[in-house]
Design a protein that fits this description.
396 residues, 39% helix, 12 strands, Nucleotidyltransferase, domain 5, 15 helices, alpha/beta, 5-stranded mixed beta sheet
């Protein structure tokens, strides 16, 4: 073991930066935190959270290279470096803000940027494989910042038959399992995913899966119809009405209704789906389109709870995080669907709605260097527990 890793392991409390760019690609989230312990004994104290905008050209390049019809090998190769550099810039910006020397940070945990995710077991060259690709190489981040970086967290789970997603349930399990309450934690990023935590749950009793689109369809329609990246504060949806014919078209989609375990992404709800949706939306007021896809995000969450969770376990609390928690139209719709259940935002528990996923990757980095397994077999469908992440040592 190197001196760098031995020094990190000998610390009871570590200073860690968690990094994330999600399927919406609206910014690079970075959280500065102190982490004490590991596993179910993990304690997290958030020191700061920032979002560094992704340049418009890079955002479009990511979307272009996430699509089979427009992806180019040379662009993906270069994007791997560019995104690593952008993540590094975000770290350095956070350090400057706090006048913090890189030597004072023990670890970076970076999710990278998902470019393609194929959770189905496909036959290829005589192998049956599940696969996923995140770019923004952790080696680039480690060498540009001088801080040991852990990244590429999904591949190990895919290697043992898992979907590689979702990963958020591990954080939910270690931080939010309650002794007397059944809880569900809903994260609404580009894709929405839910984690169900029975009271006093053991790890193998945790259930989690992607419920369908989060902000992805809203963001896509805002771009196509208004040339804006997001519906900030739900302002456009607030001015529209639900178009029942369009909503019924969305409800007929089969992807979100599949039985768990399952995961989804831009491969389903991206370019092609949005093209078909725009054809269906011809003649519908633009604001009504945004209101309708916003409603569908909430409906798809409720459908999955109603079909796959409530028959076995009724929850007492629904705790919401991610960018969707900042959309009051989504929140109002969820409260309407989940009658009799307390609906709260993650920030009520000390972790802001936006910072949660960045916190996750800092925690996963901590688990990786400790040599602890962090995938959830009951969630991803993997054959066994594995250590997630690759360690790239930094050297100042």
């Amino acid at each position: 073991m190197s001196k760098i890793l031995r020094k990190i392991l000998n610390k009871k409390t570590r200073t860690i930066i968690g990094l994330l760019s999600g399927t919406s690609v609206d910014g690079i989230d970075a959280v500065l935190m102190r982490v004490t312990g590991s596993g179910t004994g993990t304690k997290v104290k958030i020191l700061d959270f920032i979002t560094h905008p992704v340049p418009a050209g890079v955002r479009l390049a990511i979307f272009r290279n996430s699509d089979n019809d427009t992806a180019k090998l040379d662009e993906i190769c270069r994007l791997n470096v560019v995104i690593g550099a952008l993540f590094s810039d975000t770290v350095l910006r956070l350090l400057r803000k706090h006048r913090l020397n890189a030597a004072k940070v023990d670890l970076i945990g970076s999710h990278g940027q998902t470019i393609h995710h194929l959770p189905e077991r496909d036959e290829y060259l005589g192998y049956k494989v599940k696969s996923t690709l995140q770019i923004g190489d952790p080696a680039i981040i480690a060498n540009l910042t001088g801080i040991t970086t852990v990244g590429d967290f999904r591949a190990a789970d895919c290697a043992v038959g898992g979907d590689g997603a979702p990963l958020v349930p591990f954080l939910d399990y270690v931080l939010f399992t309650h002794k007397i309450k059944n809880r569900a934690l809903l994260n609404i990023g580009g894709i929405a995913n839910i984690t169900v935590l029975p009271k006093n749950a053991a790890k193998e009793k945790v259930v989690a899966f992607d419920t369908g689109p989060g902000n992805m369809l809203i963001d896509g329609m805002m771009y196509h119809l208004f040339r804006k990246p997001i519906d900030k504060n739900g302002n456009t949806a607030k001015k529209g009405s639900i178009d029942r014919k369009l909503l019924n078209y969305l409800i007929d989609d089969t992807n979100y209704r599949a039985h768990p375990p399952k995961s989804t992404g831009r491969e389903h709800y991206g370019k092609d789906f949005q093209k078909r949706l725009l054809i269906q939306a011809e003649g519908v007021d633009k604001k009504d389109v945004i209101r309708t896809v916003t409603e569908f995000t909430a409906y798809s969450v409720w459908y999955n709870y109603n079909q796959f969770i409530e028959p076995r376990l009724r929850i007492n609390e629904l705790i919401i995080s991610g960018g969707g928690a900042e959309n009051p139209v989504i929140m109002r719709a969820l409260k309407s669907y989940f009658k009799g259940i307390k609906v709260r935002r993650m920030q009520d528990y000390g972790i802001t709605a936006k910072s949660k996923e960045a916190v996750l990757f800092g925690v996963l980095a901590n688990e990786c260097v400790a040599g602890h397994t962090a995938n959830m077999k009951s969630v991803t469908g993997s054959a066994r527990d594995v250590v997630l992440g690759k360690i790239c040592q930094g050297r100042l």
